[in-house]
Automatic annotation (TrEMBL), chain A:
<feature type="transmembrane region" description="Helical">
    <location>
        <begin position="89"/>
        <end position="112"/>
    </location>
</feature>
<keyword id="KW-0520">NAD</keyword>
<dbReference type="GO" id="GO:0030964">
    <property type="term" value="C:NADH dehydrogenase complex"/>
</dbReference>
<dbReference type="Pfam" id="PF00507">
    <property type="entry name" value="Oxidored_q4"/>
</dbReference>
<keyword id="KW-0472">Membrane</keyword>
<keyword id="KW-1133">Transmembrane helix</keyword>
<feature type="transmembrane region" description="Helical">
    <location>
        <begin position="6"/>
        <end position="27"/>
    </location>
</feature>
<comment type="similarity">
    <text>Belongs to the complex I subunit 3 family.</text>
</comment>
<dbReference type="InterPro" id="IPR038430">
    <property type="entry name" value="NDAH_ubi_oxred_su3_sf"/>
</dbReference>
From TrEMBL, chain B:
<feature type="transmembrane region" description="Helical">
    <location>
        <begin position="12"/>
        <end position="30"/>
    </location>
</feature>
<keyword id="KW-0812">Transmembrane</keyword>
<feature type="transmembrane region" description="Helical">
    <location>
        <begin position="90"/>
        <end position="116"/>
    </location>
</feature>
<feature type="transmembrane region" description="Helical">
    <location>
        <begin position="282"/>
        <end position="302"/>
    </location>
</feature>
<keyword id="KW-0520">NAD</keyword>
<comment type="similarity">
    <text>Belongs to the complex I subunit 1 family.</text>
</comment>
<dbReference type="GO" id="GO:0009060">
    <property type="term" value="P:aerobic respiration"/>
</dbReference>
<feature type="transmembrane region" description="Helical">
    <location>
        <begin position="170"/>
        <end position="190"/>
    </location>
</feature>
<feature type="transmembrane region" description="Helical">
    <location>
        <begin position="223"/>
        <end position="243"/>
    </location>
</feature>
Length: 120, 303
């Protein structure tokens, strides 16, 4: 609660980024508009105008990796504070985190063994 | 923890960052064309502004406007935390190392939004490919950073630089450096890993349908992302501002530009990596290597 004003800097940077982009768009806008012609605004799809929106279902093949990623990402949340106090706690910290990582690592090995890391 | 977000410091860091981005634009062209063309970034910007701006029909307007600005923000936000010298962190956060990661994560959001919003199949697949790439690079990158935090006993970037007084982290934990370097290339979708936006792959991938000023903001965003990543590598692995003779800021700038030049150089000589192979290699080799790196640093610290 003491140093909340520091985060104003980040907010200011975000605002400056937005304003900068807005200024560029303004310059672009002042240079003239594009003429609306049929067929000009087709998205890059080999010139074919899609009948349906592109937001229909595409299969994303790497959902297995996504699950693995989630579990390792959660582990990282514990690892940062652990890393800060690591040297203080010494060998205990190494063993504790070692067991935790080993359990997760076994999961990775299991996925690997089951062919989950093959390209699909 | 001291903060030096006074006006001169802010201006200095802003100028250094902007100048670095300009130098990077020149360097990138140099890596492709083999010659230094100092005015080319300006020419390219003017060209993009002068071109007719075509927006895809039936686009998702909100996401279409958000994506370029978000990429630029992702590139610049990390720069607030990274110190150029002992006295120039704009924002000395207790969670600095974590914040850098969090800021970079938005690059993925920006690319997926950009690919989704233009309502073209190629663009969308480009966005999904970058999401797949994130699943590959993110873990090695975060774990490599953790090992530097272990050595410094602090997440504050200034402390991490100070912890490298005797020996730079590139020597202390070379595996971590290698992993972070490769992950940085993948994060900034630089050439060996530029499948999501490569012009020859998916008609431009996630960027296919951005023209004019929005394309310019996207390009600037990518360059600022590369710049931030180069500063991050300098701060976390190359001893930051430390060096004989010259003032600290100059050392940081020199190291940063060298790192960025090496980024572009690598892209020039290595062939493009498919994202599915990248995923496979990352989880089979890079993630275990990152865990071993943590163990290695842990043992070194206890000795």
């Amino acid at each position: 609660m003491v140093n909340d004003s520091r985060y104003l800097l980040l907010l200011g940077m975000l605002a400056c980024t937005g304003v900068f982009a807005g200024l560029l768009y303004l310059v672009k806008f002042s240079l003239g508009q594009s003429v609306a012609e049929p067929g000009k605004d087709v998205p890059a799809e080999s010139g074919r105008l899609a009948v349906e929106p592109a937001w229909v279902r595409y299969h994303v093949h790497y959902y297995g990796f996504a699950l693995l990623f989630l579990c390792f990402d959660m582990e990282m949340a514990f690892m940062y504070p652990w890393a800060v106090v690591y040297k203080e706690l010494g060998i205990t910290a190494l063993l504790d985190m070692g067991v935790f990582l080993l359990i997760l690592f076994l999961g990775l090995v299991y996925t690997w063994n089951q062919g989950g890391l093959k390209r699909q | 923890m001291e903060n030096n977000n006074t006006l001169p410091t802010t201006l200095l860091v802003g100028l250094l960052f902007a100048g670095g981005v300009y130098a990077l634009a020149v360097l990138e062209y140099w890596s492709v064309a083999g010659r230094l063309a100092w005015a080319r970034p300006v020419r390219l910007a003017l060209k993009l502004l002068a071109r007719e701006e075509i927006k895809p029909r039936q686009r998702d307007a909100v996401f279409y406007e958000t994506a370029p600005v978000l990429l630029l923000a992702a590139g610049t936000l990390a720069a607030a935390v990274l110190p150029w010298s002992a006295s120039t962190p704009l924002l000395s956060l207790a969670t600095g190392a974590l914040f850098v990661n969090a800021a970079f994560a938005y690059a993925m959001v920006a690319l997926v939004l950009g690919g989704w919003s233009s309502n073209g199949a190629y663009a969308m697949i480009g966005g999904w490919r970058f999401l797949g790439q994130l699943l590959a690079y993110s873990m090695p990158m975060v774990m490599a950073l953790t090992a530097t935090v272990m050595r410094a006993e602090s997440m504050v970037p200034v402390q991490i630089v100070l912890s490298q007084r005797g020996l730079w982290n590139i020597v202390y934990q070379p595996v971590g450096f290698g992993l972070f370097y490769l992950a940085a290339l993948a994060l900034a979708f630089l050439p060996p890993f530029d499948l999501p936006v490569a012009a020859g792959e998916l008609a431009g991938g996630a960027w296919a349908d951005f023209t004019g000023a929005r394309r310019l903001v996207l390009r600037l965003g990518r360059l600022s992302l590369v710049m931030s990543l180069a500063v991050t590598i300098t701060v976390f692995y190359l001893g930051g501002w430390q060096g004989p003779g010259l003032p600290g800021v100059v050392w940081t700038l020199l190291k940063t530009l060298l790192v960025a030049a090496s980024f572009f150089g690598v892209g020039h000589y290595v062939s493009r990596v498919r994202y599915d192979l990248l995923l496979e290699w990352s989880w089979k080799y890079a993630t275990p290597a990152a865990l071993l790196n943590i163990l290695w640093v842990g043992i070194l610290l206890l000795l």
